[in-house]
Each structure stands twice: as structure tokens, then as C-alpha cells.
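Table S4 entry, UDP-glucose 6-dehydrogenase.
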Amino acid sequence: MVKICCIGAGYVGGPTMAVIALKCPDIEVVVVDISSPRIAGWNSDRLPIYEPGLDDVVKQCRGRNLSFSTEVHRHVGDADIVFVSVNTPTKTCGLGAGKAADLTYWESAARMIADVSVSDKIVVEKSTVPVKTAEAIEKILAHNGRGFSYQILSNPEFLAEGTAIRDLLSPDRVLVGGRRDTAAGSAAVDLLAGVYARWVPQDRIITTNLWSAELSKLAANAFLAQRISSVNAVSALCEATGADIAEVAHSVGKDARIGSRFLSASVGFGGSCFQKDILNLVYICECYGLPEVASYWREVIRINDYQKSRFVNRVVSSMFNTVAGKKVAVLGFAFKKDTGDTRETPAIDVCKGLLGDKAVVSIYDPQVAGEQVARDLAMNKFDWDHPRHLQPLEQLSATDLEKQVAVAADAYEAAKDAHAVCILTEWDEFRGLDYRRMFQGMQKPAFVFDGRNVVEVAKLREIGFVVYSIGKPLDDWLKDMPAVA
């Protein structure tokens, strides 16, 4: 029986291993992590991450052929296939700071695998890594492997948070890259592809060389982020001209060559991958002497940053050029609906912008706890991808946060006595709120700034709100006001 061990019990490792265990009941699967609280969460009735359908899959397999453990060395040593799903944060100092991937945790994992192995192994890159990382890992294992043989594979994940289980059960494609020019490398690729073939149709399993697989993940995320930045750039033009971004995007998306997905204008993209991977791609291009290509991809990030700052500017300028001392309700803190993940969420930058202008912010999100909100607002950029105990916080004191930030139990509490409501996550429940009730409890004039285009603008204006919705024709109140505070 094949034994699989995954190092890293996060958003990728946990769900991926749970589905493998579900679909391959004869394979023993164990997920290991040095974080005792995280492993305890996976072994409890309240999993450490929220993902629709994940609870059911874990409960079906846990105790049968799926387990979660902090005994990292023992399980890695016993495994035939070791997936490595550790953090690859953006470097915050040194060469490539602000762009390059920090492979400290990957190198540590490779050295640990070499130290504890008692047999040959297939080592699978599951984290998103720079091109040629596999070559570095091969060298570490070759020089420290004590005579054992290792095959390195790249098996990038293409999961969308909120639909991760569905994506794992019925993926668009599974990509396995390896050294197919050698017999051992080809056998390793076939073995891992065979695991996925237990439930994935053969025509959706793609095998490539190592470098193509590593680059494909970065390229896929860059292309998706590029589409979001493109539609967000057009949304700014729509507001300036009176066009409606929803109508423009619908028309553009009907072109079969373009398609309709990822053409929803918003306050900006977030999540653990897009910005980090594009910055990594920029750095790689610079390293290979491709400054024009690097500059092209850097603009995707710049437009995303511009969209967030543009939103904050619109809020402040619309409210008489100041939000100092005014209560602003923020509905949604996760970077997208159906997840509790706040990594690189646009809400952080929007809230910091409002707090910088001395607003009093009341936040409601159905899946994000107050402790996480406070931590995110006090954290340095790029530090979220390090282990919790290595996340240094900014000088925004707990007292300052308590004075300016509150976490509400529901949307109505958040909006009570507020001057404005900012919608920053497209949770379905925000579409069905009783906005008339909300309006009655707010200061007047009452503003709604919809960063996700979830509200029916005409209905809210009938109630009495001044409404700003990304890429939509401007409210009469806003037409003569500057877009920048």
C-alpha cells in the first residue's frame, strides 16, 4: 500500500489530502504540521479553515485512511510520496525584497526529508515555487540523501477558495511535471498521475517537464489577475463616461475568444496567490534579463493597488472630504465569499486607508473572527505568509485598534449610527439585507460604497442612500465631486 505524507496542513495540503484519501481508500494519507493548534483543529469538529464541503470529506476519511499529526519526522520517514505544501512568502529583506519568493521553509523541508528518510521517495512540489526550484531541491537531497534515491515532481494546485472541494473532485486539469527523460523520473510521473487517475479522466491529466509545470502555475495566476486588473481599469473609465461596467463586461465576455469568467469589476483582487505569484514572476523576468516583460506584469499589480486607493479616495471625497470621527461599516473582510481567508484581502488596504483618515470602522464578516481582523490590520505587508509566531506586527497599538475598530455580530449592528457602508466581500447574504431597515438606523446623508457590485443600485437610491458602485454611472450627488480627496 502506498503511503502519502503531506508537509503543511493549510489551505492546500488539508483539502487536497482529504480528497485523495476519499477517492483512494487503500492509500494511507497523513498530513503533518509543526503547529499543534492547527493539527488539533483538523482533528476536531471545527476545522481550522472554512471551505464548503470540506467537513463532510474529512469526517468520512478521518480515522480510516486519513490522519493529521505533529509527528513530522516519523511520518515523512515512512512515506513513499511526500507532498510539500509549505509557505513560500515574499522576501521582506535582502536580494529581491518585495518580489522574490523566500524559499527558507522549502529548503528546511528538503533537508528534513533527507535527514529522516529510510527509503527512496517521490517528493512533490505542491506549493507555488519559482521556476527551477526543483533543481535546487534535487541538489540538496543528492548531497544529503545518504544513498537513497529521490524523484522531484511538480504538481501545482489550481484551486479556487470557496470551491476547492469541487475543484479537487472535478478539476479542469491535473498537472504533473517531472524528469520524463529518465526512466526513474518517468516512472514517478506515472505513479502520481495514476493516483489522480482513480477519479480524474485521463484527458484531464497533463504531464510535462519540471520547468513547464513550475511556470504554468505562475502563468495561470498572472493571466487571471491580469483579467481582473483589465476590467477594473475599464471600470474607472466607465465611471468617468457614464458607461456601465456590467454591460461592458457582458458584451466583451460574449466574445468566444475572451469568455465571461473573471470579468467582474471589484475593489481589487486578493488571496494568497495572485499578488505574490506575479511579484515572483516579475523578479524571475528581471533575473533573466527581461525588463520589458517584468514591467508588463508589474502593471497588473499597480492597477490592483490603484483600484483599492481609488475606492478609498471615492469614500473620503464623497463624504465632504473627511471621514474623521465618522463611523464606517465594512461588510465583508475575507478576500472573497465562501472562505474565511483574509490573506491579501483588499479589505485590509481599504480599512487602513479609512483608519489613516481617522474613521471609526465597524466590521462584519460571517467567517472572519475579530482576532483575525485585528491581527491583519496590525500586520506588516508580506508577513502573513510566515508562521504565526514569526509575524511581527506594526506599531498600531491594541489601544488604537480598540478606539477605531470594532467587530460587529451582524450587518445591522455594523451599520447602526454609521455614516456609510462599504461592501468589500460579495457574500450572498449582503444581497438580501433589509437596506431600508439599515437606512433608518444610519446618519444622514447615508452612503453605500459597493466594492463588489452586489446591491441593486436603483432600489437603494429610492430608499434614500447615496450610492457608489464600482464602474456604474455615478449618483447625482457624486457627479460634481472630485474622485480624489
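The radius of gyration is 24 Å.
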